[in-house]
Amino acid sequence: MRNDQGDLVAALDFGGTKIAGALVDAGGHLLARARRPTPATEDAATVMDAVAGVLAELGRSVHWSRVRAVGIGSAGPVDASRGTVSPVNVPGWRGFPLVAEVARAVGGLPVTLVGDGVAMTAAEHWRGAARGRANALCMVVSTGVGGGLVLGGRLNPGPTGNAGHIGHISVALDGDPCPCGGRGCVERLASGPNITRRALADGWRPEPGEEASAAAVAAAARAGDAIALASFARAAQALAAGIAATAALVEIEVAVIGGGVAQAGEVLFAPLRERLRDYAALSFTSAVEVLPARLGSDAGLVGAAAAAAERRGLWGPGAGR
């Protein structure tokens, strides 16, 4: 096992709007950064060219010689067992061999791929709200709803890198169809666009000149708008049901929630904690804590690095165990 504090990991955070990269050290510090917009509507080669451009920029850093591995947190679905990604919002990438392409671009360094929710989980377990917790669910509630699991003190990404994807647990058996092909999924009820969609359908309207968004619905809810409050309450109910189901399956002790929707604060967290009591009633589920995430927009990069470092025994919360 290596435990050289000078070792670095090159991290990539790939999404439908941006490709971020960084060199991350054993303290979770970002020593160099690079970023490009994702050419999401272009063909596979053009998208990969943008990824290669981020890596090339990182490669020009004076710190690159210390890089020992690469970690990727990607919008999904991902298949870590095959090293492929099929991001919903990047139609040119279907079963795209991202691990092999990145490995080629970085001269054969080992590459670890996880879903973006798992990357966020790795970050929050290593440096955030789940630090020191043996069993945790960490969630990203934003345009979609993703997540990841820490079990027995270690990140548990599952064989394909998608374990803990709470957004596609069905919590409304006769609910609306979800783009994933399921029905009544947590994401269909609790994501930012769906909070907004429901509020608009029930008669809420943004202020003049204001964009209709989950943030605008949250602002209206804080001002006491009944429709906005109801839309967040419904989202909170879906999240509570999903958290309770997860707790019953794997006995988590904490659920950490981040992402843009979590910025609503107590507009989301107060009804979520209240409804969790309705669903998590068993003795081994009733003590689950709900906490806001501590790491911000860098969580994907920090987590991708942590996942790769832990897997390679470099550093991280579970390295060397």
Automatic annotation (TrEMBL):
PROSITE patterns in alphabetical order: ROK
One protein family per Pfam: ROK
InterPro entries in UniProt: ATPase_NBD, ROK, ROK_cs
Family: Belongs to the ROK (NagC/XylR) family.
Protein name: ROK family protein
Species per Swiss-Prot/TrEMBL record: Streptomyces triculaminicus
